[in-house]
Amino acid sequence: MTDELDKSIPREESLMEKIAEKIHDHDSSSSSDTEHEKPESPSALKAKIYRLFGREKPVHKVLGGGLPADVFLWRDKKLSAAVLGVATAIWVLFELVEYHFLSLVCHILIFSLAALFLWSNAHSFMNKTPPKIPEIHIKEEHFLLIASALRNELNQAFVILRSISLGRDLKKFLMVVVGLWIISVVGNWFNFLTLLYICFVVLHTVPMLYEKHEDKVDPVAEKTLKELKKHYMVFDEKVLSKLPVASLKAKLG
């Protein structure tokens, strides 16, 4: 009798151990499931948010970074205000006062050279130190970098214009035609200097405002682009697809 009791006790203990292991495994699996079901971090969610023009970098990096981006985004308010003030003064001089560019450059040089000449000759009589005029040397590397960047942009523009001229991309052709037509209309409203000044003011204000309100602007821009894509698909289906472009491509090819 005692032997039977001794045998039944370990069996019960082993059965209880198995049940406990199963409960432990179930708890661990449920905890792992809850870990997988945890909400994503705010940074991961923010990365999935649509950004205007599909950008993945901050606005500061998109503008090139460095001092120009700081000026356009008003990181240094005094410097940005000074740059905008100088641009406004130049526009007022040339557009409203109708001052000529060559006359302005000559007058600035005359005033600067006369002031430096008098200061250099009068320092001995006034017991003041002579002006320290630095030696200015323009490095060849800067001109080469600018020329190389300009050459790359021009080559890319020529490639696009050639592909459009050969009738390979109807979408680009329509975009270029519409863009040139808009520029011609705007050119009738303003002269070249005023247009440059307007573009400068836009660059000085729009990126700064967009950076402050990008979380509100991006969803609206996403909806607008979706609607434009829908309208373009309808236009493509009803108009562009019926044009004899495919046959022309086959003949050219």
Automatic annotation (TrEMBL):
InterPro entries: Reticulon, Reticulon-like
Domain Reticulon: 68-253
Subcellular location: Endoplasmic reticulum membrane
Protein name: Reticulon-like protein
Gene Ontology, cellular component aspect: endoplasmic reticulum membrane
Basic and acidic residues: compositionally biased ranges: 23-40
Positions of transmembrane segments: 79-94, 100-119, 173-203
Residue segments, region Disordered: 23-43
